[in-house]
Structures are given as C-alpha cells and as structure tokens.
C-alpha cells in the first residue's frame, strides 16, 4: 500500500462528510465562540488515540499472538459493515448527555473519529509493514488534518452541497470503502491459505 492510498483509505474510514451532521447537532449546545476550539480538541484527542495504536500495534499483536490474516479478515469485515452503513445510512442517533454538557472524548473523538475500524486498519498497517512507520505517521496526520478542515467548514459545506449532496458524498465514500474492505478480506483469506499450505 502506498502512502497516498493509506491516507486516502483512512480518510474514507474517518468519514468526515458523514460526521458533519452529527457533529453540528452535538455542538449546537456549545457556545458558538467555543465550537471550533472544542472540535479541534476532539480531533487532536482522536489523533492521539490513532497514533497510539499505530505505534504500539505490532507489539500489541505479538503480545496477543494474533496473525496478520486474522486482523486483515476482522478489519475487512468491520470496514465492510461500516461502509454498508454509509451507503444505507440510518441516522437515528441518540447523542446522550445533558443538554448543556460540553462533549469531551465521547462521542466525538471516539468512536465518531477514532473508531474501531480506523484502529483495526492502523494495527494492520503497523504489523504488516513496520519499516514504513514514518509514512504511516504522515498518512494519519494528513487524514486527521483533512478531516478537521472538513468538519470546521461543516456549516459552509452543508449549505453548498445541501442535504442531498451530503448524502451523495457519504454514499460515494461508502462505495469506495466497500472496495477497500473486500480487498482486505481477500488478502486475509490469501494469507490464511498460504499459512495452511506452509504448515502442511
């Protein structure tokens, strides 16, 4: 996987266009002058979570005794389910919390940004090609930076694209993510088959 494809895939997983509506709804109860600061704080927390799993991913998998084939299959299935939800969205979301409560970590930083699918993807990258860690760090930084920019401009993007345009953009990202998920699943099956042949 190239640096560009890693950053693009992670950006699809983070789904900033799909998160705009949810972020705007949650941040409505935050004073207008604090919204950008809160949003940036949540993105930075999510960035820290993702970077932590990227940096310790290979050691964590080795400690748990997990193989790359298992992670590729599990991550691919998880991405596929996330992508299906993007193509066929169900926005009946309950945000929880008090009406005047400022969001902190949950639900914005995680699981909305740094969710299980993004973590699984980074674990796979760090374990599959640990020698390219600087590239993966740059990919995470770029994807989180672009996501932050899109979320900050959420109101403006929503006005330009409209409700239909936003749904279309999310569905397009979901379709692309389905392709990535299927590739991860086939890679996992191939790795598992090769390991069986080597053991036999």
From TrEMBL:
InterPro entries: Multi_antbiot-R_MarC (IPR002771). It comes from the Bacteria. This is UPF0056 membrane protein. Keywords: Cell membrane, Membrane, Transmembrane, Transmembrane helix. The chain crosses the membrane at residues 6-27, 39-65, 71-92, 104-124, 136-154, 175-193. It is a multi-pass membrane protein. It is found in: Cell membrane. GO terms for cellular component: plasma membrane. Belongs to the UPF0056 (MarC) family.
């Amino acid at each position: 996987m190239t640096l560009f494809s890693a950053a693009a895939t992670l950006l699809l997983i983070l789904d900033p266009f799909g998160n705009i509506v949810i972020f705007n709804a949650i941040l409505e109860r935050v004073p207008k002058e604090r919204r950008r600061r809160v949003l940036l704080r949540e993105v930075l927390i999510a960035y820290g979570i993702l970077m932590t799993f990227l940096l310790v991913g290979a050691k964590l998998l080795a400690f748990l005794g997990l193989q790359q084939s298992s992670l590729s299959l599990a991550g691919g299935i998880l991405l596929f389910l996330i992508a299906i939800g993007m193509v066929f969205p169900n926005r009946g979301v309950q945000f929880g919390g008090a009406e005047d409560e400022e969001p902190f970590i949950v639900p914005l930083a995680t699981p909305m940004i740094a969710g299980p699918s993004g973590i699984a993807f980074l674990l796979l990258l760090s374990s599959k090609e640990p020698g390219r860690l600087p590239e993966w760090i740059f990919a995470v930084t770029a994807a989180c930076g672009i996501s932050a920019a899109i979320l900050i401009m959420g109101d403006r993007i929503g006005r330009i694209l409209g409700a239909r345009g936003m749904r279309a953009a999310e569905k397009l990202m979901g379709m692309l993510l389905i392709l990535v998920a299927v590739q991860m699943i086939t890679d996992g099956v191939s790795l598992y088959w090769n390991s069986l042949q080597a053991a036999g």
